[in-house]
Amino acid sequence: MADTIKMQTGQVAIVRNEAFVGKAEALKPVLLEEALKAARIVEVVADAQAMHGWRAREAAPAEALQEREYKKGDAVVLDFGDHRVGYVSFDVRPVGSPPDAPLKLRLTFGEMPVEMAEPFSSYNGWISSSWLQEEILLVDVLPARISLPRRYSFRYLKLEVLDTSQKYRVAFSDVTVRTVTSADTSAVIELSHPDPVIREIDRVSVKTLQDCMQDVFEDGPKRDRRLWLGDLRLQALANYETFRSDDLVKRCLYLFAAVPDELGRVTANLFIEPSLIADDTYLYDYSLFFAATLHDYAEATGDEETMRELWPLARRQVELGLERLDETGVVRDEESWWAFIDWHESLNKQAPAQGVLIYTLKRAIAMAERLGCESATELTARLAEVEAATLARLWDSELGFFISGADRQVSWASQAWLALAEVLPPEDNQALMLRLLAESPDIGPTTPYMYHHVVEALLLTGCRDEAVAMLKQYWGGMLEDGADTFWELYDPQDKSFSPYGSHLINSYCHAWSCTPTYLIRKFGL
Amino acid sequence: MADTIKMQTGQVAIVRNEAFVGKAEALKPVLLEEALKAARIVEVVADAQAMHGWRAREAAPAEALQEREYKKGDAVVLDFGDHRVGYVSFDVRPVGSPPDAPLKLRLTFGEMPVEMAEPFSSYNGWISSSWLQEEILLVDVLPARISLPRRYSFRYLKLEVLDTSQKYRVAFSDVTVRTVTSADTSAVIELSHPDPVIREIDRVSVKTLQDCMQDVFEDGPKRDRRLWLGDLRLQALANYETFRSDDLVKRCLYLFAAVPDELGRVTANLFIEPSLIADDTYLYDYSLFFAATLHDYAEATGDEETMRELWPLARRQVELGLERLDETGVVRDEESWWAFIDWHESLNKQAPAQGVLIYTLKRAIAMAERLGCESATELTARLAEVEAATLARLWDSELGFFISGADRQVSWASQAWLALAEVLPPEDNQALMLRLLAESPDIGPTTPYMYHHVVEALLLTGCRDEAVAMLKQYWGGMLEDGADTFWELYDPQDKSFSPYGSHLINSYCHAWSCTPTYLIRKFGL
């Protein structure tokens, strides 16, 4: 292409398409803002029954704050009443003598009570501590209105006076968050459903999606605040049932399409600031999802022009996916982080990745046919080979499960993804999912992301009651455990589970957890 | 006065003179700026012979910085080659993969190597830790140019990477300080003197004054960054011999004059931002210095108009000073912090305060006579009474020293101030100062502020050689110990002395230490 330039980032050469960058830029949304006050003063107390062992209880109404005085070592926790994403500002004034030394404050933002209770200095996980939402401020001139330049994702804010001087104290007032989102809530049709639990799960799903919708679909507004393809696919599906910010999906597709590598691979995630950069992380499933997401977008919007323009890159992802097949027609397994699928330490990725490949191949063929491309015929032929290979190599008819990897692992992920891929005939596919529930193999789902695929596979195979039960049990469990927005990680058997080494760093408003609204509305649950 | 309003700050009612505020505002100087780069990379190493036990030695030229990469836990110390006051900015760029987590940095600014070597978390003094110059920054978008909004006073800057992520490191470049001062160095005549030590003491005095000259005369650009009357008086004297920013002295006089309390007392110090506020600290000697500083200003500038306008308030300070005399004509002593004089825990303030009163009274009389005021006669009569009372009550002819307080303390401060007050005949005054040097009573000077008054008393009494020797020994000692600017505190016998509980919090560029240039130039040393 004439309008592309090559850029070297890390070890990967990127072929940048400026026309696509321009299209994405033109679709950049305006952020909607709302100024909201702190709702109340709370105390965070130990409670063995509460999530992480901590519960916030009301200590005083928010109005009491301005009357209170804080000296060195004092702290107060404010509760904003619900999950917020935005920019915080507040007034601070001296009490006593004129302030004869700077004021030193620590601000701690938390989505969950645990972030107010357990010191961030105790964090010892393997991903960066810089995700912990904390600021240390030195204020030279008082009184002052402090406006923090960084965006935070939180419900709770701890204001902590690290030092004043012996001559003065401080008082806080008008603690405000200017929330930001590109999601227009007026576009969402309220769910009319007789089951209040389903209604609440839907409401919190929509709120989760809303808080992740910024100038791109972010995975989580606390962490990583970034556009990941695996999250985008699910956010887009939820969006078509709710906000209908379809241009934001289109923008994100063009952003991914603008920076493939020289092989044509689409990156797993993008950095938007200071300029568009493809991360040097490539995941087998995520690259394929570029095609699946494009398919879903065209289905939902009828935007054939975009489909046509991005089709060559979508087809390329499928070709690259097929290139990974070994001589027997099964994707080559590997020790490294080559596919995501789920956060499970022992999960073998081969069979679920095979499922993602077939799932995507079918959608690619649908696009090729719609566009009248010759490649439809070739892809259809390849599909048949791959499906045959899957049954020959990965289906264990004695076990009645798909197996994965050299150790023939039987996991939930393998069954769910190969059910979604519809390799088996419908009745066998349903039997597979019911067998999965009945036998419940050890290697289970660990994230809402994987639970989503299990529930969707149940719905696809006609196991509606089981799907509803699982949805209510899993996402409803989060609600019972205090979720204002749905969490990145939730293992009912191990509620402090974190793949990062600490629950402090988990994201408690995470895009891939927002899908119940899609499942409920799309499938009419 | 019609143009005054009363304000209540703390327990003190302030009578605000808006006309004076306006005059001071009109004299606000423009700050001169200069962009300066870091000079080199240094290591701070333990050295028992060095000040505080730490010495900075060159590790690499400054240009090497941009080639170096820093990961979590790494740090680098930059040396700006001399003392700087201003605003710091630098470039930071990621190295490796795109930065997938915020960058967390700690910046530590130090006037002395010890501030780079001893962690601020070890500080346990009684004044606020918020004076320690440290910032913790979280940077969301890289590369970035970081421009810190606060002003720092430093020679050394430690850049410390608290966290990045496992995927990237950072590199720093173009670390720059935009220095600020209202002092115009081109106005200073270079000292021509055969003694290189005297030349160097003069140069560093001028640099110290320069760095303290901002939109007011600050006591220290690190701490307290505030306009104190005791410092102003000495800065003004040094200024008349060097920068001749006489309007800045005038501005400061009007600022003090704008906010006396309802008794007419002038505060010991002022806050300028966010608006002019009189601190609720009142010190006997500092209030009197309003009159002395006005006298010196008028002497240096011939500005009789200002003298005339501020004279009523100057006279009022003398009246208030006289009101503190007991029935025998000696200032009433007290346990509390009623006069400053010097940072010496055991120093009794009575006799030195008596000296300050007489010293000021004589200058007030000179002003009254110049202005043709009737009060000259009355003040002259009071002076005779006070001098007689001083000799009767405070002079111990057996000891040959002035004594102070109920315990008849013999201190350097008492002798120096009563010598400066010229209570004794000239030959006795000289004998007093020589006796002071010979017998060296235990309660000695602890600050350059007090040393200044001892040296000036020696010069006044004709002990020129002794004055030069002390000046070279004391300020020259600071130079030998590594001073770039003269320090707030320096006790050659206890080099870690701090009245605040830690040498980390001392100010190492302090206005009251800048007087050698005045002593050298005014007295033609």
UniProtKB/TrEMBL annotation, chains A, B:
Boundaries of every Glycosyl hydrolase family 78 alpha-rhamnosidase N-terminal domain copy: 39-178
Molecular function terms from GO: hydrolase activity
Domain of life, per lineage: Bacteria
Domain Alpha-L-rhamnosidase six-hairpin glycosidase: 195-518
Keywords: Hydrolase
InterPro entries with a match to the protein in the record: 6-hairpin_glycosidase_sf, 6hp_glycosidase-like_sf, Bac_rhamnosid6H, Glyco_hydro_78_N
PANTHER family: ALPHA-L-RHAMNOSIDASE C-TERMINAL DOMAIN-CONTAINING PROTEIN, C, PUTATIVE (AFU_ORTHOLOGUE AFUA_3G02880)-RELATED
Record-given protein name: Sugar hydrolase
